[in-house]
Amino acid sequence: MVKVNENYLKFPGSYLFSTIAKKVNAYMIENPDKKVIRLGIGDVTMPLSSAIVEALHGAVDEMGAAETFHGYAPDLGYGFLRETIAREDYSSRGCQIEADEIFVSDGAKSDCGNIQEIFDESSIIAVCDPVYPVYVDSNVMAGRTGTYDEVTGKWSKVVYMPCTAENGFVPELPTEAADLIYLCVPNNPTGTTLTRDQLKVWVDYANETGAVILYDAAYEAYIAEDNIPHSIYEIEGAKTCAIEFRSFSKNAGFTGVRLGFTVVPKELVRGGVALHALWARRHGTKFNGAPYIIQKAGEAVYSEAGKAQLKEQVAYYMRNAKVIYDGLKEIGCEVYGGVNAPYIWLKVPKGMTSWEFFDLLLEEASVVGTPGSGFGPSGEGYFRLTAFGTYENTKEAMERLKKMPSLRK
Ligand code: MLT
């Protein structure tokens, strides 16, 4: 009899956003007259910009003509997109990343989840707490973690680095051995950031210890302040210790289109092996290339028109972030994030758990957010709201929150 991967049986529940979707659907069935406002999952609401739509149409026409039809895409990405990324995202910021160090994929979530495959099963992962659940869950599936403790909300064999208001949401270097260090800047879920100096500490640590930093920069387009790096390769020494993940979902609205990329510098070597070669082997074997039409849409993100339109989209969402941030402050909440990121992280009222607050918000205001504890034990007592809604819904959600008696101090 075949044996299943028992690591899957260790999970205490379903994936965070699936659990939330189930709860919200049940609420909507019970309350068909209520207009639910979703500020939970970080899914965008603005349509694709016209420069991107034009590129998609053009690429579809190419696919419909024998002379310009494209079959399988090159497994690591089309040269036109890899070269554009290298120039626009890296050279322009003074980072020397070559086009062939960029691996185009169907999104950062897949890459963040899959990257662990190229490391030994015994590798110890270190994660900020709270954290985007994919980092931990994908390692659980691979058998790299121990068991889940319902009381502490922690997995054994995982190094947790608490990021709370007490330490300004800046993780401290681990005191235990850590091989794979996941960092997400700007951070999901807290919306906070690390400065260049703060990130340098991590780069130096990884180079000294031989650890590898898995750097998720999916939200870099939202950085407004100058001292926050857009890429870890802005930090000296990062090319010998860091892999970077990028997404087109949040900066260009590709959540339903799917495109991302991962940078593995050739200088990144562990145990005498170039990780670039391992990831190329893995990617080439398990992925058949992002579709041509989608990569053409990705290229349009960097056109002059695309850049101008996307700057406006980011500004639109950041206006929402300000509405949420200011609205919560007005009520008297303790609020973080929302300045260099589309996520706002708030303290829930005293005596309540994050999930209790989730239920309360849904019941009293028909507003959906994400409970902090869903991102890890140090997220307990916090709650995440996203700025990716429409402006009208965001304003209405805040009006509803302001009327909730339990939220007023
Ligand atoms: C989130 O809400 O944390 C994100 O939308 C998840 C994702 O990007 O996969």
From TrEMBL:
A biological-process GO annotation: lysine biosynthetic process via diaminopimelate, diaminopimelate-aminotransferase pathway
Pfam families: Aminotran_1_2 (PF00155)
UniProtKB keywords: Aminotransferase, Pyridoxal phosphate, Transferase
Cited function: Involved in the synthesis of meso-diaminopimelate (m-DAP or DL-DAP), required for both lysine and peptidoglycan biosynthesis. Catalyzes the direct conversion of tetrahydrodipicolinate to LL-diaminopimelate.
NCBIfam families (alphabetical): DAPAT_plant (TIGR03542)
Quaternary structure and partners: Homodimer.
Protein name: LL-diaminopimelate aminotransferase
